[in-house]
Batch of 2 targets.
Target 1
Amino acid sequence: MKRTIIWIGALGIGAVLGLFGISWLDQLMTFLATVYTRLFQLLAVPTIVLAIITTLTTFGSKGYGKIFGRTLTYTLLTTFAAAAVGALLYVLIAPGNLPMEAITQSGEAVEAPQMSYAEHIINIIPNNIVKPFLEGNVLSLLLLAFVIGMGLSKLPESENKAVIVKGLLGLQELLHLLIRCLIWTLPLGIVAFSAQLSAQVSAGVVASSIGKYVLVVLGGNVIQFFVVLPLFLLARGQNPIYVLSKMMPAVLMALFTKSSAATLPVTMETAESRLGIRKNVARFVLPICTTINMNGCAAFILVTSLFVMQNGGTPITMGTILLWMFISVISAVGNAGVPMGCYFLTLSLMSGIGAPIAVLGIILPIYTIIDMIETAENVWSDSCVATMVNHDT
């Protein structure tokens, strides 16, 4: 509780500092925010790899199958629910088309690299053990971690295996010590993140809105966050208020970093130390959820794709909505948990079907707010999945 109060206080201080509009202060806050984001990204990659390897090694083949099955089931259920909420709000609120002049003036959004699904799958399979670490390719790292972890679990007990396992566990302990030290200094980071956002708002960067579309996206996130996910927890006999209060540091961190991958070290530490989730569950489930459990992303892809296609003259029928619900969920699974990951993924999908991606140029100035909220929702959903899996196993 004390830590949460300090974090909220830092949030308020940062918001006030950002409103001053002092150039050197804004530059300092941007610098600090960038430093903290990079430090958490630095710790995120080894956290993912070591967590999965050590868990699979100590679990063995008998223990992880049920946990993985439960994780995948809850991930798909919550992600489909998020997409369904977005679809329902889109039908009820019915955003209208943008003026053609606005689309023309916005120009192209941002060029996105074109890649087929076959190329995407091939890129997951590494041909160099170092390259996935250098590129931060989470899916490749997950594959490597699964293979190494399962390989170690199958090795017969020996002195060599014990040395490897002890070394990995020692590295993991060192990593968690570094994470705890970074979390201790985090109020300074929160001041910087809050000031940076406040300065952007006061400068008008995210002040303009496109009305009903924004209402659908943000409304869907709010309903998923405060209604749908708590109902999932209640169905498994868990108290959503208690779970959220314990996971609040991770949710707040996600709000400001806009990256579930960068927030992963905080999410794992908070789940274990505050919420009391078993280490073997937290260190197995949360890294997987960071990659595949993207509630906010699925809803954003669906609503934004429908909005862009509608502005391009595509009739939005029930069949179209159902098809893109499926596409949005599949696309969200495996999307990189990094800032603007969903935006670029949606841009690629719309480019592929020839939709007017200039609409995304109009959405871009307000995407900062959308990205913050959907990332917080993603981490909250990860926490819910981990809580339910911990309860079921």
Note: The radius of gyration is 21 Å.
Target 2
Amino acid sequence: MSRVTIVLGESDIKPEGCVIGVDYGAFVCARDGVEMILACGDFDSVSDEQFHLIESVTRVDRLNPIKDMTDFEHALTYTKDYDEILVLGGLGNRRDHEYVNIILASKDSRITLMDSINRIKKYDAGVHRIVKGDYQYCSFIVIDEGMITLDRFKYPLVDRKIHVGDTYLTSNEIVGDEGTLTLDRASVLCIQT
């Protein structure tokens, strides 16, 4: 499995695999000595001095600030050859960016958004193992309707029809080290916190 980490800002989590720094996240990587394969963005959130540091350590794709996509969305155009995309620094801070980052994660099951207390990932139809790790709660937001089965969860479900807008899938808990999520024709956004 090939993995790339996209760094959008400050994070306590260590990047894995190849690294793409985005805007201020590229400065964070350059400052902390994290090797990047690329830095991209319009760099409107870094100073001239910070930008010079970025361009001194990696290749830069500087975007026009007048554009029809976010810097993160542009960074995703470089990830076609990766199986997993870890995104750091994309939660918290500006709510508009956070919301757009979650929308992008809900469209691509390769993406995992993480910060110190949350892990957000889309799951498509199939059987999935979800590791509990340090997360107490596990919630599911329905993206596409279908059937769900939750095994080794505090509130298990067996072949339950799920609908967009269902709220009862919030604040479940994995029993033991991992739970099993089975989706038939459905897709969900899993939020562990």
Note: The chain has a mean pLDDT of 96.
